[in-house]
């Protein structure tokens, strides 16, 4: 009986390992960038003017990079400007710095979450303009903006976290 269970277990393990081999479905891009696919269904409004996509995914095997919220801190002392646009620019620059540590760029970001203190339409306009300046090709990641009353530190006006993808 033990021999039968061992043989059955070995067969199932081998079958499972074989069934997980997806190399025959792999799409390998020619460059060192990920193959991000943005989806904006025609039955929903066009989100591109607002600097986001309804959904994103990837076409290759790899791993996700989860990036903690990046504030608008300008230096190693985390100096925070009182100006919202300045903090937005630095939060995006800080995001790009973390991405670069993995050999990635904004084109590899699948999803971002933005927390804005005392959000209003003027801040949304600034955010959108800076997103367009950062994502120059207009292939924006999926995005969620959450208005908040305050963030972790006094004077923080924005925080941006992200999920990026790095191919194998």
TrEMBL record:
<comment type="similarity">
    <text>Belongs to the RutC family.</text>
</comment>
<dbReference type="GO" id="GO:0005829">
    <property type="term" value="C:cytosol"/>
</dbReference>
<dbReference type="InterPro" id="IPR006175">
    <property type="entry name" value="YjgF/YER057c/UK114"/>
</dbReference>
<dbReference type="InterPro" id="IPR035959">
    <property type="entry name" value="RutC-like_sf"/>
</dbReference>
<dbReference type="Pfam" id="PF01042">
    <property type="entry name" value="Ribonuc_L-PSP"/>
</dbReference>
<feature type="signal peptide">
    <location>
        <begin position="1"/>
        <end position="19"/>
    </location>
</feature>
<keyword id="KW-0732">Signal</keyword>
<protein>
    <submittedName>
        <fullName>Enamine deaminase RidA, house cleaning of reactive enamine intermediates, YjgF/YER057c/UK114 family</fullName>
    </submittedName>
</protein>
<dbReference type="GO" id="GO:0019239">
    <property type="term" value="F:deaminase activity"/>
</dbReference>
């Amino acid at each position: 009986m033990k021999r039968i269970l061992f043989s059955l277990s070995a067969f199932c393990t081998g079958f499972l390992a074989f069934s997980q081999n997806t190399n025959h479905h792999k799409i390998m891009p020619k460059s060192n960038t990920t193959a991000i696919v943005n989806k904006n269904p025609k039955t929903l409004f066009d989100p591109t003017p607002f600097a986001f996509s309804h959904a994103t995914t990837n076409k290759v095997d790899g791993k996700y990079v989860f990036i903690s919220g990046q504030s608008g801190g300008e230096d190693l002392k985390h100096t925070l400007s009182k100006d919202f646009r300045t903090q937005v620019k630095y939060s995006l620059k800080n995001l790009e710095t973390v991405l670069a540590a993995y050999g990635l760029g904004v084109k590899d970001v699948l999803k971002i979450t933005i927390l804005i203190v005392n959000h209003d339409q003027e801040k949304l306009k600034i955010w959108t303009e800076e997103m367009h300046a950062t994502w120059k090709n207009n292939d924006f990641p999926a995005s969620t903006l959450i208005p908040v009353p305050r963030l972790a530190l006094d004077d923080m006006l924005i925080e941006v976290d992200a999920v990026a993808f790095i191919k194998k």
